[in-house]
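Expect chain and fold; see below:
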Amino acid sequence: MEYPARMSDEVGDLSREVGLLVRRLRGWAGSSWDVPLESGITRAERTRLLLDELAILGERVGTGAPAGARPPRLAPHALPDQLAVLAEDLLAALLPPAAGPSVAAGPSVAAGPSVDVEPSVGAGPSVGAGSSLGAGPPGTAVARRGREVLVDAYAAVTRARADLDGAGFGFRVR
């Protein structure tokens, strides 16, 4: 199956978003995880929801995890590493086989992002008619599923970043 070159770029966008989130989460300690979000749940609970979302998406794209498996509930201080590992598995499953490990030509998500600047608002995988992800022979189910998972994963990560970057700024609301 022929994969378009742009697919690597779109997976790279997701990798960058995950890296930014992991870096943010690694900066929190102790009571920072207990800060309530606007939705009423804590930062730790919101991060666990993202982990579950990514596990479901990984199952859809074929990461090799058993059907119905969800990440174990770890203490908050371990959540950034758990997110990094889960994201690495998902990103690897989304990469075209020919791309191999050098697709992003940079450090892995577990090592942190390779950029110091926040991406522009609205950046991310192309989902319109011009998107090349999932392109290929019409009816290619694997490519179509990969595109859907990539779009869903990007949306899940950016929603989580928006939620987690909200109120509190690391201080407990009293």
The chain has one domain: 6-110+130-164. Residues 6-110+130-164 form one domain. Confidence is low (pLDDT under 50) at residues 1-5, 100-136, 170-174. Helices lie at 6-26, 43-61, 79-94, 141-164.
